[in-house]
Design goal:
By secondary structure, the chain is α/β, with parallel strands linked by helices. It is built from 5 helices and 9 strands. It has one domain. Strands 4-5-6-3-2-1-7-8-9 form a 9-stranded mixed β-sheet. Helix 2 runs antiparallel to helix 3. The longest helix is centred in the middle third of the chain and has 16 residues. It is globular, with a radius of gyration of 19 Å. It starts with 14 loop residues before the first helix and ends with a strand. Pfam families: F-box. This is F-box domain-containing protein.
């Protein structure tokens, strides 16, 4: 059925009603809405929210980004090797098309392996910027993950970064991490040397 009524003039609302409308959005919907245009991005950035931070897990073939609030997990973005065509949308971030499938507050991110770092970095930067929240923690699982150090600069402002693996990181790799991250960042290396 086709509607003959004009579209709702969302952008013509005064700030307080617009803020109230956007606060009723789910976290994932806000993130999606912010990718529609520069204006949408600015509006989402100006919206007050109750999100407290982002937690990240990253390993050889997988990453997850979890947006938390005082009420718990609000939205989860995770990489997926399974490629679906149902309910798929594309976001343009940092010049890359990012294929997303959202179900409730869980979003699967599909990407070609050669674009993994760029897409991960773009998604983290975008979520942190528009929701204006800190990266609370990052957990790296380093087993069979040769290039994990390439991801450290994109999460260097995290409050806590942990590295877990079957073998200890070299002293040189540990020093590289210490030199790149925020000095207030709590670092954990397991196993210890």
């Amino acid at each position: 059925m086709t509607s003959t009524s004009p579209p709702f003039p969302l952008f013509r609302l005064p700030y307080l009603p617009l803020d109230k409308v956007l606060r009723s959005f789910e976290c994932g919907d806000l993130i999606e809405f912010s990718t529609c245009s520069k204006r949408c991005k600015q509006i989402v950035k100006s919206t007050r929210n109750e999100f407290t931070g982002i937690k990240i897990q990253i390993m050889r073939n997988f990453f997850s980004l979890m947006v938390d609030s005082n009420n718990g997990l609000e939205s989860m973005w995770m990489s997926s090797e399974n490629d679906f065509d149902e309910n798929v949308r594309y976001f343009m971030l940092s010049g890359e098309n990012i294929k997303i499938q959202g179900v409730n507050s869980l979003f699967h991110v599909f990407y070609p392996p050669q674009s993994r770092k760029l897409i991960f970095t773009s998604l983290v930067d975008h979520i942190v910027e528009i929701l204006q929240i800190p990266i609370i923690s990052v957990d790296f699982t380093t087993d069979q993950f040769d290039r994990f150090l390439q991801f450290v600069p994109s999460v260097s402002n995290s409050r806590r970064i942990s590295f877990y693996g079957d073998t200890a990181m070299s002293r040189g790799d540990r020093e590289f991490v210490r030199n790149i991250v925020n000095p207030d960042c709590e670092l954990t290396f397991w196993p210890p040397i």
